[in-house]
Every structure is written in C-alpha cells, then in structure tokens.
Q: What sequence folds into this?
C-alpha cells in the first residue's frame, strides 16, 4: 500500500484577492507543496519538488529577477526537499521518479537534486517551454537553468496515446493516464493555468487524494467555484480552459466530498494534511 506524505519547501507571498476573488488585500503565504509517495514496488517518488536555493541563483539577474520580485520567496535550509527527505531516511538518489505537474519554477526548482529520478510529465507541458528564454520564459514562470543538464536522458513523458477510461468515482473526469501501470497513480489533464498541467490521484490505506497543482490556488476556490483575480487572465495561457477546469474540480468536490483535493499552494489545506513537525513552519 502507498504511503503518502504531504510536505512543502518554502513559500512565496501574494495578496489574497489575486488568488481568489473577494479575498482581502493582505499578503498570504503560498507554500510550495511537494509530496513524497512511497510505493511498495516502485520505491520513493515525488510529486513536484517545491523551491530550492537554485531558485535564487536562477533569478539573480534580469530579466529572471523579475520573477523573484513578483513572488518574493522565503526558504530555509530545513525546508529543502533533500533535507526533509532525510527525516524519512531517504537520500536524493533513492527517489525513482518525480511527477511534474507543470514546469513553473516553484514546482521544479529542486529537480537537479534528484539525479537518478525519471521525470514524468505530460509532453506538451515541457514542449511549451523547452526553448523559451529571457522575458518570454519569465512570462511563463519558467526558469531554464532549473532544468537538469541530463533532463532528456531521464525524461519519461506520459504516453498520451494510451489513455484509460476513468470509472464513475472520478467523474466528471473520464480520461486519465495510468502512470505506473498498476492503477495506483492516475493522472488527468488540468489545462488553463499552464500548458499540459497534470493532476494526479493517489490512494493510501485510508484516503484518496487528488493533487491539482495550480488549477486552483485556494481550496475555497474549488469549494465555491470562485475564480482568481481578473488580472490572472494575463498570466494564464488559456483562461477559458482555466475556468472549465475549475468548474470540473468544483463538480468533482461536490460529487466526491470524501476525496481530499489538494491545491499546491493553499496554506489551510496543507495545514490539515501536513505532518505535525512541518506544520509549525506554515502557521502564520
Ligand atoms: Zn504554476
């Protein structure tokens, strides 16, 4: 049976009303969630990586420094994914796969640390950013230097020509991808926020989790089908798809309220899920 640990590595801040319409002007924390998935046969795997110190190197100069100014990041040594994994007796080389929701810097900043892991992602997620540099990359929240130099040799893009039909317990999602071939981790496309954004369903011995990355920034957005600020239409590659995806997540939540839906940056959602020692660091 899978063991799941929901963690985060660092956080940035942003006014709440940008993240969700009707929110306050107060700056709130956006923890950079990552999950440790321990699978009985496939070993230890991650969903995303959170921030790493490489984010600061990658944003030290213009135009990439614009990214850091837009979302100021707080990160300590103890926050780093590699250091948190030590508490599970795991070294970086023990990680067999990293499931990448999308290639925004706060999701892939520690990728280079996991030098034996295969990267699993929807192909168009990387195709859409692979050759972008400079301002065009910053506009896509993509920092090319975060991608390991041997990325291609360890890349394992999802074969989208082999979708699986999802049973009613995943409605309204009907089309997924069986990432390990044993139905333990099912991926779905969550378009709108970034090209090829991937969400995954994972079940441990007591609970089904649906990691939805940045398809919503707040759990409340999903519960109330509440969009972020209009300005985000300028940031998202496909605002219409974003609205449709959020609507689908809202329907999913209504149909299956027992499933824990986890947006990557919702502090209150993560606080409910994070193991007690780590919860200390995200308490306001
Ligand atoms: Zn993102």
A:
């Amino acid at each position: 049976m899978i063991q799941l640990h929901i963690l985060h590595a660092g956080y940035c801040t942003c006014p709440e009303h940008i993240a969700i319409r009707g929110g306050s002007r107060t700056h709130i924390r956006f923890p950079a969630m990552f999950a440790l998935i321990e699978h009985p046969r496939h070993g230890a795997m991650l969903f995303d990586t959170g921030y790493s110190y490489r984010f600061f190197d990658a944003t030290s100069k213009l135009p990439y420094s614009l990214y850091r100014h837009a979302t100021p990041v707080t990160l300590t040594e103890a926050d780093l994914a590699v250091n948190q994994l030590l508490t599970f007796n795991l070294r970086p080389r023990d990680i067999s796969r990293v499931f990448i929701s999308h290639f925004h810097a706060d999701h892939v900043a520690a990728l280079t640390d996991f030098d034996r892991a295969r990267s699993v992602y929807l192909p168009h997620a990387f195709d859409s950013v692979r050759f972008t540099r400079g301002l065009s990359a910053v506009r896509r929240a993509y920092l090319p230097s975060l991608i390991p130099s041997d990325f291609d040799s360890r890349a394992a893009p999802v074969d989208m020509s082999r979708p699986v039909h999802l049973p009613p317990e995943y409605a309204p999602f009907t089309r997924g991808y069986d990432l390990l071939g044993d139905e333990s981790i099912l991926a779905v496309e969550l378009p709108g926020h970034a090209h090829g954004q991937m969400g995954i369903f994972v079940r441990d011995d007591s609970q089904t989790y649906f990691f939805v990355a940045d398809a919503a920034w707040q759990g409340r957005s999903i519960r109330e089908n509440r969009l972020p600020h209009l300005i985000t239409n300028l940031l998202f590659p496909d605002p219409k798809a974003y609205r449709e995806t959020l609507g689908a997540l809202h329907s999913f939540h209504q149909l299956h309220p027992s499933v824990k839906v986890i947006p990557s940056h919702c502090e209150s959602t993560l606080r409910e899920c994070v193991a007690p020692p780590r919860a200390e660091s995200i308490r306001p």
In short: The longest strand covers residues 3-15. The pocket of zinc ion is lined by residues 102, 104, 141, 193-194, 214 (CB under 6 Å). Residues 97 and 118 are 5 Å apart (CA to CA). The chain has one domain: 3-276.
